[in-house]
Amino acid sequence: MSNRVYEILFIADPNLGEEAVDTLTEQVQGFVEKDGGKVERVEKWGKKRLAYEVHGHREGYYVLLVVESTGPLVKEVERKMKVTDGVIRYLTVRVDEELRKAERRKARRALADEKRKSRPGGAVPARSEEVRS
Hints:
Blueprint: E1 4-12, H1 18-34, E2 38-54, E3 57-69, H2 71-83, E4 87-94, H3 96-118
Antiparallel strand pairs: 1-3, 1-4, 2-3
């Protein structure tokens, strides 16, 4: 199976404290790396107010992991997070298709810009104005 890129966002219990959230983040990273996945990026968003109450909490520590792994590995990481104390909610999204689409759009835009710049007279305005007599 080929590796895909996933974003794993989890919300930690706000009563844990900063050091415990760091430990929890390392634990989730360990879940990914133990089974052969690769953590590309970790973003700690800090304590934020939740949109609605979750397990009696109105706030939580948000942590985002960008992971390269296989589908079964992500399913196993989700299973482990479900039983891990301190994780009150999690969400996993596959983003590799969106990244490829964004790269293709970016390449098309760059090509169009190069074509526009290479025309005689420099850049052409996006829309032509009518000449009044």
